[in-house]
């Protein structure tokens, strides 16, 4: 067998299955301990924001444009996985002085270290025909499936962080965001929270969205605009945040809404048919007569080739008005607790992984199979 064929066999039969096994273990740990993880992140952010505010008062930092949560690759290579919190303004975006605020991410990277060790054991079984240096170099390029759990954790914690007095009292630039990435590597960074204080007018915003520009709307913050009866089909709105937006009677068929958040939005009569809804958040929104026919929003879907889970939280409909909405033939793992569900059409829908209140058990028209697939919870659970 040629060396390249041997290498490919080693990856496919040993390295990738071992990686995926460790990612699944990490995922299970994250799901079980998510609240505990958040409780470790929020106080650190609180103290850090107080420090940043003090720097601003002393004139050391202008209006904050970005709060960074950055993996320290050197520390990771030394067996001390840590993320550093640091702030920048628009004049110092490239400067990243050490802040002293470090988050211990051992709970993530112990699984990567175990993967390295198991791969080394497998390599030795190949009679050292696999080069150790080449293997390690390849593995270090596989950081993201592990690192993404820090992205998930901080994004999840932002619900609590944004309510902190220390966070609210920061002097923020008109465009502000929180990003999780790698220290001094602007290519490996991801926005987990964005605030845009320079919002477009309703007419301008509607025209901008209907232009359907490629990759223009990911992570965007769109607030307080009237976008009713618009055509926003097949747009990528992944991880965007709509806040107090009127979308009534709009067309959003085929849009990508991975992790997209709708806060206090008016989405009645919107066509969300055939959309990707993994981790979309519609809590408290008006979705009366909205159509989610054929939409896809499962929970904990694992993609082997990338070592990534989609659907960390399911689709969140808690407290939403879903009266007369339609989910015909959709695949939705939704949290419907506290939602208004009068005459919702679930014909042919796969509701595995969904939650509903016990009191709604016979208020919603479902098949016996659908009822069995739903987790029925008490009101205060």
Features:
381 residues, alpha/beta, Pectate Lyase C-like, 33% helix, 19% strand
Could you describe the 3D structure shown?
The strands form six sheets. This protein has a five-stranded mixed β-sheet. Strands 6-7-8 form a three-stranded parallel β-sheet, with no helix packed on it. Strand 4 and strand 5 (185-196) form a beta hairpin. The protein has helices at 3-57, 73-77, 106-125, 132-140, 144-161, 165-168, 202-210, 368-373, and strands at 64-71, 82-89, 102-104, 172-182, 185-196, 221-223, 241-243, 261-263, 296-297, 301-303, 308-310, 315-316, 331-332, 334-335, 355-357, 375-377. It contains eight helices and 16 strands. The chain folds into two domains: 3-192, no CATH class; 199-381, E3 ubiquitin-protein ligase SopA (Pectate Lyase C-like, 3 Solenoid). The N and C termini lie far apart (58 Å). Helix 1 packs parallel to helix 5 and helix 3 (106-125) packs antiparallel against helix 5 (144-161). The model has no long low-confidence stretch (mean pLDDT 94). It is 33% helix and 19% strand. The radius of gyration is 23 Å and the shape is globular. It is α/β, with parallel strands linked by helices and 381 residues long.
What is the number of strand segments? 16
For the CA atoms, what is the radius of gyration?
A: 23 Å
Backbone structural class: alpha/beta
Low-confidence stretches: none
Mean pLDDT: 94
Helical fraction equals 25-40%
Order of helices and strands: HEHEEHHHHEEHEEEEEEEEEEHE
